[in-house]
Amino acid sequence: MNPQIDIGHSLSDGVRQALDISLRGADELLPQDEWVRKLQRAESTGQPLRIKLGLDPTAPDIHIGHTVVLNKMRQLQDLGHQVIFLIGDFTTLIGDPSGRNSTRPPLTREQIEVNAQTYYRQASLVLDPARTEIRYNSEWSDPLGARGMIQLAAKYTVARMMERDDFTKRFKAGQSISVHEFLYPLMQGYDSVALKSDLELGGTDQKFNLLVGRHLQQEYGQEPQCILTMPLLEGLDGVEKMSKSKNNYIGISEAPNTMFAKVLSISDDLMWKWFTLLSFRSLQEIAALKAQVDAGRNPKDAKVMLAKEITARFHSAQAADAAEQDFVNRSRGGVPDEIPEVQLAGAPLGIAHLLKQAGLAASTSEGNRLIDGGGVRVDSSVVSDKGLKLEAGSYVVQVGKRKFARVVLGA
């Protein structure tokens, strides 16, 4: 985090500030001396730099792990540079093989269009939409055609492509690599040519693709872009990167109460990395807060600040305040003001079956495990009898700290 590299020459206050902002939380900034020269040129000419981030709409929603690079875009946007939010509607048809050990099945055009509809709306919760250039890479990729694709492919060698870590591992393991997968880094790199990008952002897993963009810009006679990679954010478990498939994520469209409570569930150690990557507080503020915690202040105070900031960003300050109060109520054994109502039939109904049918447990066996662990309450009373059957009526059913449902059970 925050690599410290000797610049070797004097910088203006504005360039130094821009460099510090660029490096905050970054994994790598390459090449740093070229980025400094770009910043100096922008300062002397008043011409903003073009900063690109591409996201493939492979799912309908963005989680806060995606906002690590969006936050960096917003910081650079606030310095006056032109940010380009690129929706990879063409590259999604290929499927990004980054970090994968098998061929990734491409999505259909219909799936891509559905997912893309929500991407920019959600990204606008971080970026300033009035100062954001929105592009779709089908604009220049579709017109290439077969002839253009062959000419593009001639500008990169198979040997260079096989330097990519995931391709090398799959080849050595005798696993399938389809020819179309080689097209993905080429097309992502061509995006940088089409947009005349000065800087491209991405996660650490995108480094190879970003470097392809530099190479292709040189092939097309352009000044090559710099690349800035950001760490992949660990999810709620503090181990795996945030992912919907790992169920350790916070979706930016989740309800404020859920979002607030999920942030509070992370470990005290992980909290500080989240502060660096997700908070808009200055590093000085964060360091002062950490010093207070190290001196004895309750770390939960800091975590509440982080939870309220994140919740307010994607909802409102009022929603964040309400979410905090809701969390306090729950921690005291209270019931949230708004909980989903579920209509069920079949009374008398066994408690494990009720949990499954109400969507509070994935299966009756999971329901029984939750009961064994003391994690199920009916009308605030802990359920200890797996043989409990509920008669017709209305019940507030709670699983763990965050799952509630008002179950109206009929005969």
TrEMBL record:
Q: Per the UniProt record, which EC number(s) apply here?
A: 6.1.1.1
Which reaction(s) does the protein catalyse, per the Swiss-Prot or TrEMBL entry?
tRNA(Tyr) + L-tyrosine + ATP = L-tyrosyl-tRNA(Tyr) + AMP + diphosphate + H(+)
Q: Which organism is it from?
A: Pseudacidovorax intermedius
Its gene? tyrS
- For ATP, which residues are the binding ones? K244
Show the SMART domains listed in the entry.
S4 (SM00363)
CDD domains xref list: S4, TyrRS_core
Complex and partners: Homodimer.
Q: What is the name attached to this protein's record? A: Tyrosine--tRNA ligase
